[in-house]
Design brief:
cytoplasm (chains A, B); Nuclear Transport Factor 2, Chain: A; globular; 48% strand; nucleus (chains A, B); protein transport (chains A, B); homodimer
């Protein structure tokens, strides 16, 4: 198995580049059991989650990752928790917003899907 | 079983009040398999984790929770992931720091222990 930090980097690079270029492509990363908490609102299942993400009211968005920390989340399967902090630039604005996001990734067929996803903007 | 948001609130209230009054008391919340990532540094096991937490170089600290989001982390056991964002006041300073912290809580004997703990300050 690849190093857990390598998996975290590869996953988050892919996730945010997909988010920032074609949000609908994120659907493949979720399953029916997947959960998203987005600014306190809860969604379950790939369709509901991607419907939420694709309906966010901005034209362009850019995630700039500052930190990513990964830990194995189980002693029995190769799942992992990744915590990301970073900056979000919306519609080319000059005041990036800080965010934090947690992913719980479950192995499946040589890859991973997102079981838990918790997103929060961090206000000063 | 209590509602997951109730568990998250009870746990984080207890965790931060213990952290802010007697850090050594946190040891009971971790096990030998527990992991802490603190500002990117990794620690494993209750002893190493609490040694890190009790050696942090401040006299007083106050955690002010802004948001807490909880999700079940498994379809088979009553574990949960809690993501917290908030403000940290160190030594009574006038400039609170933003933080985010993820806990992965595993049920044990009617209570929970911390399997994963990831802490990050969020810089603007």
């Amino acid at each position: 198995m690849a190093d857990i930090n390598t998996i975290a980097t590869q996953f988050t690079d892919f996730y945010y580049s997909t988010f920032d270029t074609d949000r609908s492509g994120l659907k493949a990363l979720y399953r029916d059991t997947s959960m998203l908490s987005f600014e306190g609102a809860a969604f379950q299942g790939a369709s509901a989650i991607v419907e939420k993400l694709t309906s966010l009211p901005f034209q362009t968005v850019q995630h700039k990752v500052t930190t990513r920390d990964a830990q194995p989340s189980s002693t029995s399967i190769a799942s992992l928790i990744v915590n990301v902090t970073g900056l979000l630039v919306v519609d080319g604005g000059e005041n990036p917003m800080q965010f934090s996001q947690v992913f719980h990734l479950i192995p499946e067929g040589g890859s991973y899907y997102v079981f838990n996803d918790i997103f929060r903007l961090n206000y000063g």
